[in-house]
Amino acid sequence: xxxxxxxxxxxxxxxxxxERDGAIIPIFGIMLVIIIxxxxxxxxxxxxxxxxxxxxxxxxxAALAAATQLSTQAxxxxxxxxxxxxxFKGNMSDADFLDEAIDNLSFVxxxxxxxxxxxxxxTMDNMFIDFGGYGKxxxxxxxxxxxxxxxxTFSRFDVEMAMVVDVTGSMSGEINDLKDAAESVVNILIPDxxxxxxxxxxxxxxxxxxxxxxxxxxxxxxxxxxxxxERAGSEKYTDASYTVSPLGDGSGTYRSQxxxxxxxxxxxxxxxxxxxxxNGLTTDGYTAGQTGVGVGWYTLSPxxxxxWPAESxxxxxxxxxxxxxxxxxxxxxFNTHYNKQxxxxxQCKNKQxxxxxxxxxxxxxxxxxxxxxxxxxxxxxxxxxxSLCGAMRNSGITIYTVYxxxxxSSDGARVMQDCADPGKYYAATxxxxxxxxxxxxxxxxxxxxxxx
Length: 452
Prior knowledge:
Number of strands: 15
CATH topology of the largest domain: Rossmann fold
Helix content: 40-55%
Strand content: 15-25%
């Protein structure tokens, strides 16, 4: 009875031994499918990783574009969305999943902390894991979903900047270069197309005085309808010992050479106004640099806010959300200043006869402002300018300066060096250098407010 089952088992073993070579074929086929799926899965995963990296790069660029715009101007949600979408499209134009990524594109602006976060997601078909539509139930999904975000900080600060430029007679051959340099500052800090810019710039051209135009009467107590130079005293618009005031003797009569035809532009974020003022720069006269420094300061000083239109009124020094800068430029030595003297009529007439004064003389003893020429680093024009620069820095204004010319060891260059904050002095020995210096300063200012 037992012998028959044993023989049956032995026969089965022999049969299995004889047929095991044929069993390798289906086993090999199964293993080949698994190997293909695993290799294909690696390809699918690699494609998704690359797509996610591309998405991440595009989101970084879009967030940076938005942050840059938000640092310089106030934007509506629709404007932010357009900036982000335009940048995103530019960096994802050849992506198969672009439309879906744009549909999922979103942003959040944290104004309090100065952060913008941009997010997106998309899906990608699996070419191998799905295995022709038959493998997804056994091996994995038909698509992979991937997404990421990017966060960039932007400046929460506003910027006020005074651009003080030399338009004396010695600049006549380079005035177009100066215009190019000044325009480069505007193009960087208030780009074309800007609306509600967070940056305001004033333009202060100077020679032997500053052409205050319609602001002259208020600034000088009605003594001038055009030009202002300096005076000592404690008048309303005074921040330091020497400040803006009329040239003359109180008569209201001013010579045409008392200041150039280049007119001041108070703080504004209007590109068109700034470009018009820059284009209108003309040259004439000697170099009373301290008058330009003084008026440049007063476009930034809250002590002068009542003089300017409301939209040009500078912020208080205590306003922690406003950064103040000055860019001061000259091409030579400061050489002209003004002294107030009390003179009798005969003394005044004597000065007229000797060519020292050409204003009207009055009866009795009167105060007269007399133009003086004194060159050198120790001259009153230079020292008054340096005094103003020091007072500006003490008020929290950051000063950049440019000396334009080859005499880089001259008194004028020394004044610019000592006026500037440490590391913020530029020597421009050529026209190209002048434009580059102004552009670099604008970029430095941009970096400052972007990083804070």
